[in-house]
Design brief:
Helix content is 20%, strand content 35%. It is built from two helices and eleven strands. Strands 1, 4, 6, 7, 9 and 10 form a six-stranded antiparallel sheet that branches. A five-stranded antiparallel sheet has the order 3-2-5-11-8. The chain is globular, with a radius of gyration of 23 Å. It starts with a helix and ends with a helix.
């Protein structure tokens, strides 16, 4: 009985190996096998802010300038809380050409506010900065954030009837600046 199974296994193995070689020669890729390369040559987006509690932040970006964002174009960063200002830097994949941004301000209900000192976006030797009270010219809050535009503070409001998701999204002014950097 073992002698009957061995030829079948050899034939099956030959078919599988042949299919893999054929895909490699043709450059075929499955829908989720293409990886984004991040070498640091792409967009660098840095928020200088005071974040007093340990938390996790997400930066979503898209390349069509709309308000639609998905998890495929997102970078997450864990941050240690500190009473002193610190840089929160996101490095996008090299091929990314963002036309809009959304910054999710933490995932912990313990974080009550974030003081933004400035925003800096660098790309291929070009730079854009928004400092102090100008910061909120480039970002607007969702209904879980109240912005103190004079002090540059995003105050987080928890709403028991909603999932915790404080967000600031890019305004038309930010999209205009991203377009300039992409040129």
């Amino acid at each position: 009985m073992n002698r009957k199974i061995i030829p079948i296994l050899v034939l099956l193995l030959a078919v599988v190996v042949s299919c893999k070689v054929d895909k490699a020669e043709n450059g075929a890729k499955g829908p989720n096998t293409e990886e984004s390369v991040t070498t640091g040559a792409g967009f660098k987006i840095s928020f200088n802010a005071v974040v007093e509690k340990d938390d996790s932040f997400q930066l979503f970006y898209n390349e069509d300038g709309t308000e639609a964002f998905d998890g495929d174009q997102m970078i997450e960063l864990k941050l240690k809380g500190n009473a002193e200002p610190q840089n929160i830097e996101f490095v996008l994949p090299d091929a990314a050409k963002p036309l809009n941004l959304r910054f999710d301000i933490g995932s912990s209900r313990e974080l009550k506010q974030v003081k933004f000192n400035n925003l800096s976006i660098d790309y291929k030797g070009k730079n854009f900065k928004a400092e102090g009270s100008n910061f909120f010219k480039y970002f607007y809050p969702n209904d879980q954030v109240v912005c103190d535009t004079v002090a540059s503070v995003a105050k987080i409001i928890t709403k028991p009837e909603q999932p915790y998701d404080p967000i600031i999204g890019g305004t038309l002014y930010l999209r205009t600046e991203l377009e300039k950097l992409n040129k």
